[in-house]
């Protein structure tokens, strides 16, 4: 059971091969010296894999190992929290980081990509275990947030909605 929630390199080979089959472009990496405006303006995710493709690949990864039995909603949530902790550790004691993390080394960026991916994979898995259609739910939540934070009331402000109503 020690490896039931692992998404480490040892267990990611098949998934990585499946992702390769989708042939997404390599992740964009802002070069040192790029302006903040360039970094903000140009960033976009790859079109593939889609969330559902990632979900399907990971579901097969889990089924192939008979790990469904360990993936109760609670267990997957705790695994996700653990991965968020690993992600936070990368930022710990560094002070503020610029957008694009232009001062991070290639090794640090690779670690960041891996921990963010672990978080995403477990988030998708948690949504699966809870039977939540996550992209559809996120779309609804964005619409709710649009109504909750009207631009004319909150533009340039970081106040919570309860403070300006
Ligand atoms: Mg991790």
Write the layout of secondary structure elements.
Layout: H1 13-22, H2 36-42, H3 51-64, H4 73-91, H5 106-129, H6 134-148, H7 151-154
Helix pairs in contact: 1-3, 3-5, 4-5
The structure holds magnesium ion.
GO molecular function: dCTP diphosphatase activity; identical protein binding; magnesium ion binding
Keywords: Cytoplasm, Hydrolase, Magnesium, Metal-binding, Phosphoprotein
Subunit structure: Homotetramer.
Describe this entry's structure for a reader:
The structure is a single chain. The protein has 165 residues and is an all-alpha fold. The protein has one domain (9-132): Helix Hairpins (Orthogonal Bundle), CATH 1.10.287. It is 56% helix and 0% strand. It is built from 7 helices and no strands. The chain has helices at residues 13-22, 36-42, 51-64, 73-91, 106-129, 134-148, 151-154. Helix 1 (13-22) runs antiparallel to helix 3, helix 3 crosses helix 5 (106-129) and helix 4 (73-91) runs antiparallel to helix 5. The longest helix is centred in the C-terminal third of the chain and has 24 residues, at 106-129. The N and C termini lie far apart (50 Å). The model is unreliable at 1-12 (pLDDT under 50). The site of magnesium ion has 4 residues, from helix 4 and helix 5. Magnesium ion (MG) is lined by residues 83, 86, 115, 118. Residues 1-11 have a biased composition (Polar residues). Keywords: Cytoplasm, Hydrolase, Magnesium, Metal-binding, Phosphoprotein. InterPro entries: dCTP_Pyrophosphatase, DCTPP. Its EC number is 3.6.1.12. GO terms for molecular function: dCTP diphosphatase activity; identical protein binding; magnesium ion binding.
């Amino acid at each position: 059971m020690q490896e039931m929630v692992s998404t480490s390199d040892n267990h990611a080979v098949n998934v990585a091969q499946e992702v390769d089959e989708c042939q997404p472009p390599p992740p964009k990496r802002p070069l040192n010296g790029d302006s903040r405006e360039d970094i903000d303006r140009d960033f976009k995710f790859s079109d593939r894999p889609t969330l559902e493709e990632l979900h399907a690949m990971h579901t097969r990864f889990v089924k192939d190992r008979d790990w469904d039995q360990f993936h109760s909603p609670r267990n997957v949530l705790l695994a996700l929290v653990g991965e968020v902790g690993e992600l936070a550790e990368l930022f710990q004691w560094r002070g503020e980081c610029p957008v694009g993390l232009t001062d991070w080394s290639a090794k640090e960026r690779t670690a960041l990509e891996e921990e963010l991916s672990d978080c995403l994979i477990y988030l998708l898995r948690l949504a699966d275990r809870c039977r939540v259609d996550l992209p559809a739910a996120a779309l609804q939540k964005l619409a709710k947030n649009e109504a909750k934070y009207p631009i004319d009331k909150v533009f340039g402000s970081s106040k919570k909605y309860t403070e300006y109503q």
